């Protein structure tokens, strides 16, 4: 295991009498989905590169309850949330970075009313602050030279929490051309995964939401569609496949782009 | 003298009938559940000033925004003239304020006239957008029938109102120039109002004194009659937004849009379940036993919050929500505008029944199922595009969520795949069937 892939758990750290600076909340997608695991690893590499002292919960992590709550099942959500809060408080955790806007939103905004109070950041916010503080050098790299990147705003990061600039400022570090879709930022179209849609077939209609959003992205003729959410990543990747563009257009998380540019 | 009495009666009936209908709407809104929106008064005033008064969110679409602003400004400024009309009507005088206000009077009426011309043009364009160009969002399926008639009626009433203003001022201008107006003669030859000093002679120049007086009186009485018709039409129309936009934006949700409400009723039970010291067989204390059993989510309008209900009466059916809804844009049944229209229709119906048959009357109908179908609710991605798009901060998403809660927690109606997802969360702490022990496998995978 390379140095950059060092991932201590909270249990391990506590056993060694250590306290992490921040907890990395990986999320279900980042833990189990093969594509999203790559995003998780990119985040880990960046954290290690910047010598951020972090830990994960590993087997002690559990679903935040977001899809249950959005599906209308408040019972299952609150059971999950309260169990998670017990674990987090048990370790005395104060600061959390998440790899997913849904985990970010629910822990930041909805856990406090159940007694869980933490400083919660989305990974784009943390990485952006690392770059700003000079802890992470992004050379830009030649690999992005002349490439067109468009950023798809995840609903729960953008409209949900007004985080529009952090991911864009990161992308501007790359030696690439950042192009905006017609529907971007507050007007950004959903990828179709939120509100527990990820886990069900869609209702009868004339198109899938992810195909609609992919069409909007393809209008600006990008080489890369950047996202900040593992679910958006799945949806946009499927959309690109649906349009037979997987040979020319890649869907990549902002964290992965930064890790690549920083040569990690 | 007779005209003063007629006018006073008109005034009383006009305001009285409006007040009685407005009060019905108020009591309908108060059927809703309580929600606290009395905090942060400064911030709330700011939101109201920007969004309602300043129409900030309208300007995301510049063309309708500018047209709408002409109408809005004309409407607000015309109220100043209305004060004089009421004063004239009750005193039997004519142009009561002209003598004392002098140049400022001429300026104000001129300002009203210029805005009225702009509003006149804007109204024609709005009619064209609805009926000739057929802007898609104004012609969707929930807009068939009454909503379409309603929209056109308002515009036509506005045209008539403005026509009356120019009949009144134009004919009076000609009369004044001939020294025949009832307005006090200040020794000049013209009122000098920006538009009517030119339009008046052109339209009414050749008419006899008696015809001119009739035209002027038709304009004057027509104007005030239209104002009261309009005012009393409001409570039955989507156009009520001209008043409710202000309280509705004041009581906006100030929290991040991504944050959904916490259900306190559920919290009590979950805490009890998770408390190792709790006695499951304990007799609930008296106060709790007597309390009404909380219903989870919303099946009918009175399960929603009063803010949801205020939202429903504030909606003017512009359709920006639906136009931006990813589900609607991909042909699904869901339309956030329809959710708001259904909520209002059902609330009107329920309110009427309660006033007729008493507080506990049950008409056997509900918002969920009779008005809004499950298929609509499950198409929502909770993306907040509708909330973001609304120019007056209406929140259709919170109604959708409350009804999902009712479906799931009261009626156990969950799409099969979602039931599977939820049981996965309960059993393995993830929406998929993976063991929690495998959560860290990625650490060692290449």
UniProtKB/TrEMBL annotation, chain A:
GO terms for cellular component: plasma membrane. It comes from the Bacteria. Residues 23-107, 149-236 form the Cysteine-rich domain. Keywords: 4Fe-4S, Iron, Iron-sulfur, Metal-binding, Oxidoreductase. Pfam families: CCG (PF02754). GO terms for molecular function: 4 iron, 4 sulfur cluster binding; metal ion binding; oxidoreductase activity. This is (Fe-S)-binding protein.
UniProtKB/TrEMBL annotation, chain B:
GO terms for molecular function: 4 iron, 4 sulfur cluster binding; metal ion binding; oxidoreductase activity. It comes from the Bacteria. Residues 306-336, 369-402 form the 4Fe-4S ferredoxin-type domain. One of its GO terms (cellular component) is plasma membrane. Pfam families: Fer4_10. Keywords: 4Fe-4S, Iron, Iron-sulfur, Membrane, Metal-binding, Oxidoreductase, Transmembrane, Transmembrane helix. The chain crosses the membrane at residues 6-23, 65-87, 107-128, 149-169, 189-206, 218-236. InterPro entries: 4Fe4S_Fe-S-bd, 4Fe4S_Fe_S_CS, HdrC_iron-sulfur_subunit, Helical_ferredxn, NarG-like_sf. PANTHER family: IRON-SULFUR-BINDING OXIDOREDUCTASE FADF-RELATED, IRON-SULFUR-BINDING OXIDOREDUCTASE FADF-RELATED-RELATED. This is (Fe-S)-binding protein. It comes from Brumimicrobium glaciale.
